[in-house]
Fold:
Amino acid sequence: LGLGLASDTVASTLCSVIWFLLSHPHQYQRLQKELDTAIADGDDPFDAVKHQELHFLRACINETLRLHPPLPSNGTRQIYPSQAGQTIAGRFIPPGTTVSTPAYSLHRNQDYFSPHPDQFLPERWLQGSQFDSHDSSAFLPFSLGPSNCVGQKFARRELSMVLCILFKSFTLRFADGFDAEAWPREMQDFFVVTRGPLYVQLTRR
Structure:
């Protein structure tokens, strides 16, 4: 059963989405245009029905989770010592062996996401995109299988609501003096990723 410390993981992802969008003005403008089209002034930005129309917002969230997974090393699994071992993808795993699939590395593997697996390209998640390789089965920010994160739908709903109200109501930019280029390099993996503060200035639209 996967439960990844919901408040920390959602907070980490929110910061990363904001950082990516402020670092890519064209994507920022596209998202704001989508929000202005789907949610008229006076509409409820927390309306989950409206969120279903926000395809580019969902793509931005997915692309952020791909590049900045909140659990970059992911959880570990172990072949029970009492078992005889297992063969997985043609490789024998002896009993007692601990294995893991680091999401950070898998999500940047060009065999599954290309071209430009290290670049923020939300378009790769949109229907009809023409990317060379896009294997959603290699996308596991919430893990996979019977032990995946039980709170992933709730986390996605939280992300959509907060990002929707932020980018609908405010114009965001990096705060004066903030070193935006250095921020992602401050990543530390303590199972849940941590980074330094993200300083952003908000101006009501």
